[in-house]
Amino acid sequence: MRQVLQNKLSSTNQGEIISRWEKLSLPEQNLIEKQLESVDLELVASLYQKRNQTISLPDIRKIETVPVLNPSSNSIEAKMEGLRSLEQGEVAILMVAGGQGSRLGTMQPKGMWPITPITQKSLFQLHSEKILAISRKVNRDIPFLIMTSPATHEQTLEFFHAQRFFGLKRDQVFFFTQGTMPAVDINTGAILFEEPSKIFTSPDGHGGTLTALKNSGLLENLKVKGIRHIFFFQVDNPLVQIADPVFIGHHISQKSQLSSKVIPKESPTDKLGNFIQVNGRCQIIEYSDLPLELANRKKPDNTLFISAGNPAIHLFDIEFLDDICLNAKALPFHLARKKVPYLDSNLKRVIPEKENALKFERFIFDIFPFAEKWLLVSTSKEEEFAPLKNATGEDSPETAKLAQCKLFTKWLEKAGITCPNDANTPEIEICPLFAIDTEEFLQRLPKNFNPKYPLLME
Question: In the chain, what percentage of residues exceed pLDDT 70?
Fold first, then answer.
C-alpha cells in the first residue's frame, strides 16, 4: 500500500482497512486501492462526525405557505408556448432510474418492472413510448437522458438495446451513471466491504444528478445543442405527463429557474415532501422531518397550512443548473440508517439483525432555495402520481395499474362514454402512441365507439 494512502486511511479513522490488507492477494489489494482512490475519505470522516446532528429546519415562525398556480388559467397560451419550445428543440427529458426493485422482490432495475394493466409493458417502455409520441407530435427527436447507477447501468443498457430502444432513435437516448458513496459502520465509521476486494457503495441520491450530468459532459453537450430546459422525473411513476407543454409554457412565461408540479396533501402526515416558503425562497421538508405541530397546523379556512406535496416532477432552467453545478458541493448529504450485510475484519460474512450502517445521499430538492425565480403548478394525484414502491398494499403494482385504469376511465367519460357501473374499475389501457392526453384521445376516438372490456387501444 502506498504510504500516502496509508497515512490518509490512518488520519480518517479507516485503519481497519490497513489491517485487512495483509489478508488479501495482490490482485485484491490492487482492486481495493483503485476503489479507495475514488473515495473522498475526508468527506466520509466529516459526515460520520456529524451523524448525530439533526436536520436543520427553518424557524417555524418564518415558514409561509407557497403560491400554487392552477394551470387551467391561461392554459391555451401556455400550451402553445410549451409546444413552441418543444418544436424548437429547447427541451430535454431526464429520467432518474438508478434504483433496483428490491422492495418488489427483484434486483433488476425498477424500470424493467411490468406496469401497464393489460399488455404488462415495463416502466421503461411506457416512458419511452410517451417520449416517442411527443417527438412525433412536435416533429423533433427530444433528447432522453437516463440516469442509472452502477448497480443498474449494464442491465438498463442491455434492456434498451434488446428492445431496440422502444422505437426511439439510438442517438436520441443518453445514459449516464450517478456517483456512489461508501456505507460505513454505524458505531465506528469504518468503511464496509461486501466482498474481500469490493467496498460496499450505494448511489449518492437523486441530488447526485447534478454532478453526474456535469462530469459526464452531458450538461455542456445539451447547452451546445440549444437545450434551455430539462424536464425531470423518476422512473417509478407511470402517470407522469412527460414534457407537459402547459407546464413548460408556464415555466417559460414566468421566467422560472425551477418549476415543480404539486399535488394537494390528503392528510397532515402524507409520505410526500412538503413545499414551504421562507424569505421568498422555496424549500422542501421531507415528511419524516416535518414536525407534527407544523404538519397539523390549519389555516383560517380549516385547510392544511402545509398542503403542497411533492410528486418529484420538476423543470429546470439549464443555466440555473449549470450555476448550481459550480457549487454542487454545497448540497448537504442526508444520512440513512440501514441494514447492510458485510465482511468483517476476518473476511467472514455478517448478516445484521438491526441497522448497522450509515448511507449518504444528496437530494435534488436541496437546490430549491438557490432559485430566485420559481414556480409551483398544481396537478392531481389521480392524473399524475401513482408511484411504484412496494410489493403489496400502498404504492404497489396493483395500485399503480388501478390508477392507470381510473385515469383512462375518465378519458372515456369525457368522450361521453359511460363505463360499467359496478364496484370494479374496468381494465383499460391506452397506449401513449394512440393518445398522450385527454385532448388527443378525444380527437382520435372513432365515432360511435362502443368499447368492450378489457379495453386495449394501441
Answer: 99
